[in-house]
Design goal:
Layout lengths: L3 H12 L4 H20 L4 H13 L4 H8 L4 H18 L4 H13 L9 H17 L4 H10 L4 H10 L6
Helix pairs in contact: 1-3, 2-3, 2-7, 3-6, 3-7, 4-5, 5-6, 7-9
Length: 167
């Protein structure tokens, strides 16, 4: 059995050592993304891309904070791909997988760039986690559900997390 996903999780944790909030965020996004991918019947290659992207989507935060003293979404999109590429290359992932993961990381806060179901499910998984971690308002959740969510599985999860809202 291929244990490279577990090795990527470990590498992500090493890059965020001591930062429990960021480690747990990435692991939660991974769990939602994996389940959404399975529910949406992604082919194995695309599910692997989704899982890797979920684990590494915020991998550039510490580098951005180090370089700029802050970390905006754009900073994450810029600093994350080189770190993700290094991790994935070290574990011998194929170039097509590495390129796709890095592309999605480079745009994961740019919702108009969503160009595939893997990218869409990553955005939805990240939002599912952020909706509780960031204690989003009812308006924010409803707005995002109507304007960004596209998968039935993602909407189902959102309805289960926020049953008091009309989604």
């Amino acid at each position: 059995m291929d244990n490279r996903i577990a090795k990527v999780a470990s590498a992500m944790m090493q890059k965020n050592v001591g930062d429990l909030k960021r480690i747990e965020h990435s692991l939660k996004v991974y769990a939602y993304a994996r389940n959404l991918g399975i529910a949406e019947l992604l082919e194995p290659w695309l599910l692997e891309v989704l899982e890797l992207t979920a684990l590494l989507h915020d991998i550039g935060i510490h580098m951005a904070e180090k370089k700029y003293g802050k970390c905006t979404g754009q900073d994450q999109e810029e600093e994350g791909p080189p770190i993700a590429r290094e991790i994935l290359k070290s574990l011998s992932f194929s170039e097509d997988i590495i390129d796709r993961v890095c592309f999605v990381i480079s745009k994961h806060h740019t919702f108009t760039a969503v160009d595939g179901i893997d990218f869409q499910l990553l955005v939805e998984a990240d939002f599912l986690v952020n909706s509780s971690e960031d204690q989003m308002s009812e308006y924010q959740i409803t707005h995002f559900a109507k304007n960004i969510f596209r998968s039935e599985s993602g909407l189902d999860y959102l309805r289960l997390l926020h049953p008091h809202l009309s989604l």
